[in-house]
Amino acid sequence: MPKQVDHESRRRQIAEAVCQLADESGLEGVTLRDVAARAQVSMGAVQRCFGTKEEMLVFALGHIGERVTARVSARLAASPAQSARTALGHAATEVSLLQEEHRAEARVWLAFVAQAAVSPALAGILRTNYAGLQTVFAQLIAEASGTSHPDRAARTLLALADGLTTHVLIGHLSPADALDVLDGQLNSLWDARTNRAGARHPLT
Asked: Which residues have a Cβ under 8 Å from the Cβ of 140 and sit 6 or more positions away?
Protein backbone atom coordinates (compact mmCIF):
# COMPACT_ATOMS: atom_id res chain seq x y z
CA MET A 1 0.00 0.00 0.00
CA PRO A 2 1.41 3.44 -0.86
CA LYS A 3 2.45 5.54 2.11
CA GLN A 4 -0.13 8.16 3.04
CA VAL A 5 1.31 11.67 3.27
CA ASP A 6 -0.12 14.24 5.70
CA HIS A 7 -0.49 17.17 3.29
CA GLU A 8 -0.61 19.84 6.00
CA SER A 9 2.44 18.44 7.80
CA ARG A 10 4.34 18.38 4.51
CA ARG A 11 3.42 22.01 3.86
CA ARG A 12 4.71 22.97 7.31
CA GLN A 13 7.89 20.97 6.73
CA ILE A 14 8.46 22.92 3.53
CA ALA A 15 7.65 26.22 5.30
CA GLU A 16 10.34 25.45 7.88
CA ALA A 17 12.82 24.87 5.05
CA VAL A 18 11.84 28.24 3.53
CA CYS A 19 12.48 29.95 6.86
CA GLN A 20 15.88 28.30 7.29
CA LEU A 21 17.01 29.37 3.82
CA ALA A 22 15.63 32.90 4.30
CA ASP A 23 17.55 33.18 7.57
CA GLU A 24 20.78 32.20 5.82
CA SER A 25 20.58 34.32 2.66
CA GLY A 26 17.29 36.24 2.53
CA LEU A 27 14.35 35.46 0.30
CA GLU A 28 16.52 35.77 -2.80
CA GLY A 29 18.13 32.52 -1.66
CA VAL A 30 14.83 30.68 -1.59
CA THR A 31 14.46 28.58 -4.74
CA LEU A 32 12.14 25.61 -5.20
CA ARG A 33 15.15 23.35 -5.75
CA ASP A 34 16.91 24.48 -2.57
CA VAL A 35 13.70 24.29 -0.56
CA ALA A 36 13.13 20.71 -1.73
CA ALA A 37 16.69 19.77 -0.79
CA ARG A 38 16.47 21.40 2.64
CA ALA A 39 13.07 19.84 3.37
CA GLN A 40 14.37 16.50 2.08
CA VAL A 41 11.50 16.07 -0.34
CA SER A 42 11.30 15.95 -4.12
CA MET A 43 10.70 18.97 -6.35
CA GLY A 44 7.45 17.31 -7.31
CA ALA A 45 6.38 17.18 -3.65
CA VAL A 46 6.97 20.92 -3.29
CA GLN A 47 5.02 21.64 -6.46
CA ARG A 48 2.14 19.43 -5.35
CA CYS A 49 1.91 21.40 -2.09
CA PHE A 50 2.30 24.85 -3.66
CA GLY A 51 1.35 25.92 -7.16
CA THR A 52 3.77 28.86 -7.22
CA LYS A 53 6.74 30.21 -5.29
CA GLU A 54 4.60 33.11 -4.04
CA GLU A 55 2.01 30.69 -2.68
CA MET A 56 4.82 28.91 -0.83
CA LEU A 57 6.13 32.20 0.61
CA VAL A 58 2.64 33.28 1.68
CA PHE A 59 2.17 30.03 3.56
CA ALA A 60 5.62 30.33 5.18
CA LEU A 61 4.90 33.87 6.35
CA GLY A 62 1.57 32.75 7.80
CA HIS A 63 3.44 29.93 9.54
CA ILE A 64 5.78 32.42 11.23
CA GLY A 65 2.88 34.65 12.25
CA GLU A 66 1.11 31.68 13.81
CA ARG A 67 4.20 30.85 15.86
CA VAL A 68 4.49 34.40 17.23
CA THR A 69 0.77 34.59 17.99
CA ALA A 70 0.86 31.19 19.67
CA ARG A 71 3.71 32.31 21.93
CA VAL A 72 1.81 35.46 22.88
CA SER A 73 -1.30 33.40 23.68
CA ALA A 74 0.72 30.85 25.65
CA ARG A 75 2.43 33.62 27.62
CA LEU A 76 -0.96 35.09 28.55
CA ALA A 77 -2.48 31.72 29.40
CA ALA A 78 0.49 30.54 31.47
CA SER A 79 -0.30 32.98 34.27
CA PRO A 80 -4.00 33.90 34.20
CA ALA A 81 -3.74 35.69 37.55
CA GLN A 82 -1.22 38.23 36.24
CA SER A 83 -2.33 41.82 35.86
CA ALA A 84 -3.28 43.17 32.45
CA ARG A 85 -0.27 45.49 32.70
CA THR A 86 2.13 42.59 33.17
CA ALA A 87 0.41 40.58 30.45
CA LEU A 88 0.71 43.48 28.01
CA GLY A 89 4.42 43.80 28.76
CA HIS A 90 4.99 40.11 28.12
CA ALA A 91 2.96 40.21 24.89
CA ALA A 92 4.81 43.26 23.55
CA THR A 93 8.16 41.64 24.35
CA GLU A 94 7.20 38.50 22.43
CA VAL A 95 6.13 40.55 19.40
CA SER A 96 9.44 42.43 19.43
CA LEU A 97 11.41 39.16 19.01
CA LEU A 98 14.10 40.56 21.29
CA GLN A 99 15.22 37.31 22.91
CA GLU A 100 18.34 35.62 21.55
CA GLU A 101 16.48 32.41 20.74
CA HIS A 102 14.19 34.39 18.44
CA ARG A 103 16.95 36.18 16.54
CA ALA A 104 16.75 33.87 13.52
CA GLU A 105 12.99 34.31 13.43
CA ALA A 106 13.48 38.08 13.51
CA ARG A 107 15.79 37.94 10.49
CA VAL A 108 13.24 35.87 8.56
CA TRP A 109 10.37 38.14 9.59
CA LEU A 110 12.18 41.24 8.33
CA ALA A 111 13.05 39.51 5.06
CA PHE A 112 9.35 38.89 4.52
CA VAL A 113 8.42 42.44 5.53
CA ALA A 114 10.81 43.81 2.90
CA GLN A 115 9.36 41.50 0.24
CA ALA A 116 5.81 42.44 1.26
CA ALA A 117 6.47 45.99 0.04
CA VAL A 118 6.27 44.61 -3.52
CA SER A 119 4.00 41.62 -2.92
CA PRO A 120 0.30 42.32 -2.26
CA ALA A 121 -0.23 38.70 -1.18
CA LEU A 122 2.47 38.90 1.52
CA ALA A 123 1.28 42.35 2.55
CA GLY A 124 -2.19 40.92 3.10
CA ILE A 125 -0.85 38.25 5.45
CA LEU A 126 1.07 40.88 7.42
CA ARG A 127 -1.99 43.09 7.75
CA THR A 128 -3.98 40.15 9.11
CA ASN A 129 -1.26 39.29 11.63
CA TYR A 130 -0.90 42.88 12.79
CA ALA A 131 -4.68 43.32 13.09
CA GLY A 132 -4.93 40.29 15.37
CA LEU A 133 -2.08 41.44 17.59
CA GLN A 134 -3.48 44.98 17.73
CA THR A 135 -6.79 43.59 18.98
CA VAL A 136 -5.03 41.71 21.79
CA PHE A 137 -3.05 44.82 22.73
CA ALA A 138 -6.16 47.02 22.72
CA GLN A 139 -8.04 44.63 25.01
CA LEU A 140 -5.18 44.53 27.51
CA ILE A 141 -4.67 48.30 27.37
CA ALA A 142 -8.37 48.95 27.98
CA GLU A 143 -8.35 46.58 30.95
CA ALA A 144 -5.10 47.89 32.42
CA SER A 145 -5.36 51.64 31.93
CA GLY A 146 -9.00 52.43 31.30
CA THR A 147 -8.00 54.71 28.45
CA SER A 148 -10.77 55.94 26.18
CA HIS A 149 -8.57 55.32 23.11
CA PRO A 150 -7.25 51.74 23.45
CA ASP A 151 -7.07 51.20 19.69
CA ARG A 152 -4.84 54.22 19.16
CA ALA A 153 -2.60 53.23 22.06
CA ALA A 154 -2.46 49.66 20.72
CA ARG A 155 -1.42 50.87 17.25
CA THR A 156 1.36 52.95 18.79
CA LEU A 157 2.64 50.12 20.95
CA LEU A 158 2.52 47.56 18.14
CA ALA A 159 4.39 49.87 15.75
CA LEU A 160 7.03 50.49 18.43
CA ALA A 161 7.42 46.80 19.29
CA ASP A 162 7.69 45.87 15.63
CA GLY A 163 10.23 48.62 14.92
CA LEU A 164 12.43 47.58 17.82
CA THR A 165 13.01 44.25 16.07
CA THR A 166 14.92 46.06 13.33
CA HIS A 167 16.89 48.28 15.69
CA VAL A 168 18.13 45.29 17.69
CA LEU A 169 18.81 43.14 14.64
CA ILE A 170 21.12 45.71 13.02
CA GLY A 171 22.84 46.52 16.32
CA HIS A 172 21.53 50.04 16.79
CA LEU A 173 20.04 49.01 20.14
CA SER A 174 20.91 46.20 22.50
CA PRO A 175 18.06 43.97 23.68
CA ALA A 176 18.32 45.67 27.07
CA ASP A 177 18.06 49.11 25.45
CA ALA A 178 15.03 47.98 23.46
CA LEU A 179 13.33 46.67 26.59
CA ASP A 180 13.97 50.02 28.24
CA VAL A 181 12.30 51.83 25.31
CA LEU A 182 9.36 49.44 25.47
CA ASP A 183 9.12 49.87 29.23
CA GLY A 184 9.04 53.64 28.84
CA GLN A 185 6.14 53.44 26.40
CA LEU A 186 4.20 51.10 28.67
CA ASN A 187 4.77 53.30 31.69
CA SER A 188 3.51 56.31 29.75
CA LEU A 189 0.17 54.52 29.39
CA TRP A 190 -0.12 54.08 33.13
CA ASP A 191 1.19 57.57 33.95
CA ALA A 192 -1.41 59.13 31.68
CA ARG A 193 -4.08 57.33 33.70
CA THR A 194 -2.73 57.55 37.23
CA ASN A 195 -0.55 60.67 36.97
CA ARG A 196 1.78 59.31 39.57
CA ALA A 197 5.29 57.85 39.64
CA GLY A 198 6.51 54.61 41.04
CA ALA A 199 4.34 52.29 38.98
CA ARG A 200 5.24 48.60 38.92
CA HIS A 201 7.64 47.62 36.12
CA PRO A 202 5.33 46.28 33.35
CA LEU A 203 7.86 43.83 31.93
CA THR A 204 8.32 41.90 35.16
From this structure: 84, 87, 88, 91
pTM of the model: 0.81
Long-range contacts of 53-59 (CB under 8 A, 24+ apart): 54/119, 54/121, 54/122, 56/14, 56/15, 56/18, 56/32, 57/18, 57/27, 57/30, 57/112, 57/115, 57/119, 57/122, 58/121, 58/122, 58/125, 59/11, 59/14, 59/15
Does the pLDDT of residue 148 top 90, yes or no? no
Alpha helices in the chain (DSSP H): 7-25, 32-39, 43-49, 53-78, 84-96, 103-116, 120-145, 150-169, 175-194
Taking only the tens place, the pLDDT of each residue in 150-159 is 999 999 999 9
- The more confidently predicted of residues 195 and 118 is 118
